[in-house]
């Protein structure tokens, strides 16, 4: 393997899709919500244009939607496994509020990461 990190690992760390050495974001903190979407115009190392056109990252909403569906499905599976192990009492038709409450809590907690991850994945699809 060359000095470049694995593509998936680099996307998960929000690295430049070309050189994979510098962050896509100006602020490293996930929970500074007023600066959550502030992205660099160009990569400091390889000078790749990280904002190729206005509105480029609107397509990341499709990635965010898919990640959210995967997260909710994973939560459902996790609750079903915990029910099978008799750690909790969960049935989708008998305890829908548990599923909804856990899903909303997970969505709110993971929103900053999922937001940045969806943009990172979108950049890896289209920026080389």
Explain this structure to me?
- By secondary structure, the protein is mainly α.
- It has one domain (7-126).
- 48% of the residues lie in helices and 0% in strands.
- The longest helix is centred in the C-terminal third of the chain and has 31 residues, at 96-126.
- It is elongated.
- The model has no long low-confidence stretch (mean pLDDT 90).
Task: Please sum up the structure shown.
The chain is mostly helical. 48% of the residues lie in helices and 0% in strands.
| Average pLDDT metric | 90
Q: What's the number of domains?
A: 1
The total count of strands amounts to: 0
Largest sheet features: none
Going by helix content, strand content and strand pairing, the class is mainly alpha
Give the CA-based shape: elongated
Helix content: 40-55%
* Quaternary class: single chain
Cα(first) to Cα(last) distance is 18 Å
Q: Which strand-content bin applies to the residues?
A: under 5%
Order of helices and strands: HHH
How large is the count of helical segments?
Answer: 3
* Rg from alpha-carbon coordinates: 18 Å
Task: Give me some keywords for this one.
mainly alpha
List the SSEs and their pairings.
Blueprint: H1 7-12, H2 60-84, H3 96-126
Helix pairs in contact: 2-3
